[in-house]
Amino acid sequence: MAHEVKGVVATGKGAPVGTTTVVVPDPGPGEALVAVQACGVCHTDLHYREGGIGQDFPYLLGHEAAGVVEAVGPDVTGLEPGDFVIMNWRAVCGQCRACLRGRPWYCFATYNARQKMTLADGTPLSPALGIGAFAEKTLVAAGQCTKVSPAIKPEVAGLLGCGVMAGLGAALNTAGVTRGDSVAVIGCGGVGNAAILGARLAGARTIIAVDVDDRKLEWARAFGATETVNSRSADPVERIQELTEGNGSDVVIEAVGRPETYRQAFYARDLAGTVVLVGVPTPEMQLELPLLDVFGRGGALKSSWYGDCLPSRDFPMLVDLHLQGRLPLEKFVSETIALDAVEEAFAKMQRGEVLRSVVLL
Ligand SMILES: NC(=O)c1ccc[n+]([C@@H]2O[C@H](COP(=O)([O-])OP(=O)(O)OC[C@H]3O[C@@H](n4cnc5c(N)ncnc54)[C@H](O)[C@@H]3O)[C@@H](O)[C@H]2O)c1
Ligand SMILES: [Zn+2]
Ligand SMILES: [Zn+2]
User: How confident is the model at residue 85 (pLDDT cuts 50, 70, 90)?
Assistant: First the structure.
């Protein structure tokens, strides 16, 4: 039996998004039907709407979500109706080259339920990151559902499904921040502030937040930044060097996704330091750096997809830390909104008024 539900669809490049009827089939083999309870508005949804990720319109947006499993396919084990889950866009397959080499965080075999959900007229929908959770119900691969304690609020839990995990993991997993490190984070939206929180959790000594918006810098302090730099009024590379005894930071995390902020990150790190790019660039962006500087400055230039997370390892652990009061994830939730307010939430995100707007269903 197919389910007719309300969902938020991007119909074409740059077109405002709105709610429409989405047809969600029952789960087949390896799949799960999830009643979505909460879904955060991530900048990546806006990238989809802008055509920055692909041209497979129409997109069913939303991918930062938690909900309750309603039904599972015939062969699915370890997941049952009633389970509270965070949806993930990295369902590790266990069989690809990355998995077999013991590097499952590089697994990109995530099953995509693409083209199974449709508009009312039968037009196939591309679910954002294989999830499509700005909808009352969605169909995903069973492996995209990670069971966690139902004691956490859905609007908080869902954030671990994308942006907050990406930021926490950029610091904890990709950069491997450890006690005593100096860390600078450029761009303090949901992702950047999560990187700040991750750096604090790992015991960083100096955490420098850089943004162009004083409001964001104020929030960054609440997440654990020890210093802040508004890069509209000060040169961030010079300030970061001054704040680290002239050395530059051990780790610089770029959470904007632009060539100019990447260049700042590159020059603001200590010799042999690490740059982690977590911001997502658009296809036309180019980076120019003197090759001699790339060579001469040593260190590591990394990028971080989804914080190099393993959902089954990281989500339950982070939920427990939150429930123990050690990971204040609720601070990311600026507002809860209805499904039909996603377009407005994009505008608020662009004006810098929110860290996360979260749709409650
Ligand atoms: N790698 C991943 O797995 C992953 C996951 C989720 C999101 N992202 C990406 O991370 C980026 C940030 O996402 P978000 O949800 O936090 O977005 P956001 O819009 O909430 O935050 C971006 C922040 O960057 C700041 N900023 C903009 N221009 C700047 C500049 N020149 N210098 C310094 N700061 C600047 C803004 O003021 C804002 O605070 C996006 O590109 C998003 O697509 C990546
Ligand atoms: Zn794999
Ligand atoms: Zn996202």
Answer: very high
- Total number of residues shown for the chain: 361
**Computed from CA positions of residues 303, 134, 46, 229, in that sequence, does the dihedral angle turn out positive or negative?**
negative
> Which of 43, 53, 110, 302 gets mutated to test ligand 1 (max ligand atoms within 8 A of its CB)?
43
Residue nearest to atom 8 of ligand 1 (CA): 279
Atom of ligand 1 nearest to the CA of 190: 16
**Model confidence pLDDT, tens digit, residues 86-115:** 999 988 888 888 889 988 888 876 655 567
Distance CA(189)–CA(196), nearest Å, equals 10
Q: Which residues line ligand 1 (CB under 6 A)?
A: 42-44, 47, 162-163, 166, 186-192, 210-213, 216, 231, 255-257, 261, 278-280, 304-306, 349, 352
Q: Which backbone phi and psi does 254 adopt, to 5 degrees? A: -95, 115
Query: Is 129 a residue whose pLDDT tops 80?
Result: yes
pTM of the model: 0.93
